[in-house]
Specification:
globular, homodimer, nine-stranded mixed sheet, 6 helices, Stationary-phase Survival Protein Sure Homolog, Chain: A, alpha/beta, two-stranded antiparallel ribbon, 13 strands, about 250 residues
């Protein structure tokens, strides 16, 4: 790292008004030049969706020494692409996303806009870190996260990350018990079992709300779910490769 | 496989009126009992998005011996969840998705609703196969795909698939040269370099259309992109694990 301040791009999927985003901004401003790009609406559950059917809008919300903030109508993935290719005049040194209100550990990563933004950074070789708190509440208590968020970010700014690798960081909710530390682990093999809430509207037509129960079928000790249960901050190195490599040699359709 | 007809769930991300969906239905009906669940609108680029901010609607479009068709306002991922947990009274034997108008090879999988539906199946241990044609045209020529789609589906129905593994199948566009066969391969490490088309609306406000150029930075011979370039059908075994396993032991944030 040179003496030059690093350029840190911040985004999230809970929208521009989320307290988790404001927390992350406050933790990043002492560490570098900060550009924020966030959606006007909540984009939870948008995963890696990109906007190709409708045009994108960008509003410059705030601009001051070392700090710029944009609001868009796009998804988290759109936002990182807009920043990289349209708004910034240089490549960011780091993309941080969050702090998400709710877990993105285990299977949740695939539904996560927070982590889509991180993966979108890693695709271009930019270090990316997603932070999520295991508390869905809009008024969640973020008071215990500072030390861990800053420790992880400082280390990545100092040492960089291997090409195309991002970090999925999840933090237990605030409690009377202090966090035990940071554990690097793998994504647990868990799933959601959906339970649709079927209702009738005032005109007699059916509609459904998606709800579900989280089921962890992975009792191993080296997973993010296990680390979180034991009150550790979990860190999973992630990349965009869906290939089940051990089956490439085994399958044959000729 | 017993003598009982397998239950095949079909979905896509190009919407219920896409010719690629109709082609896939025509190829699956001789092979089993078919249930179709597709979105009323085009859901391209929706990735693994799920609908949690608004309610879901389902319309029964058609019901006859061995065939049922539903239309929804949901994403591909919603549709598979709706079918699994609300509409079907038994677990499908297979989920097939597509035939997508356009490639889902290499990096495209992460933006793909077609492949999200497949992954959603595999999360519950249901074999899933996504079919995509390398032709974005609504009027794309699907005349050369039958043999390959049926060969792959028959084999999976007969032999099953390892738990939590799905298939990402891409098919070169129709040409005078016959397809060379099927190759099992890994996802190429490629990316999109975005080129936003900035315009002004009639009221003088800026807006952007996302466009981009596909860049394959992976010259290896064992990738899906390479197989497709050589006029093979590419098959990549896929699963939902973002962990970059080789870095789990190497990283340390304590």
């Amino acid at each position: 790292m040179t003496n030059k301040k690093p350029l840190i791009l911040i985004t999230n999927d809970d929208g521009i008004n989320a307290p988790g985003l404001r927390k992350l901004i406050s933790l990043m401003r002492p560490l570098g030049e900060v550009v924020v790009i966030a959606s006007e609406k909540v984009m939870s559950g948008m995963a890696h969706a990109v906007t190709i059917q409708t045009p994108l809008r960008v509003t410059l919300v705030k601009e001051e020494e070392g700090y710029t903030e944009y609001m868009t109508n796009g998804t988290p993935s759109d936002n990182v692409k807009l920043a990289k290719y349209q708004l910034l005049d240089k490549k960011p040194d780091l993309v941080v996303s969050g702090i998400n209100h709710g877990s993105n550990a285990s299977i949740n990563i695939i539904y996560s806009g927070t982590m889509a933004a991180v993966l979108e950074a890693t695709i271009d070789g930019i270090p990316g870190i997603g932070f999520s708190l295991l508390d869905y509440d809009h008024k969640a208590d973020f008071s215990h996260v500072d030390e861990f968020v800053q420790r992880i970010v400082r280390k990545v700014l100092l040492e960089g990350m291997p090409d195309d690798i991002g970090l999925n960081v999840n933090i237990p909710r605030a409690s009377d018990t202090p966090l035990k530390g940071v554990k690097v682990c793998r994504q647990a093999k868990a799933r959601w079992v959906e339970d649709f809430d079927a209702r009738k509207d005032p005109y007699g037509r059916n509609y459904y709300w998606m709800t579900g129960n989280f089921v962890n079928g992975d009792p191993a000790l080296d997973t993010d779910q296990k680390a979180l249960e034991e009150n550790y901050v979990s860190v999973v190195p992630v990349h965009v490769d869906f290939t089940a490599h051990k089956y490439v040699e085994k399958l044959n359709f000729s």
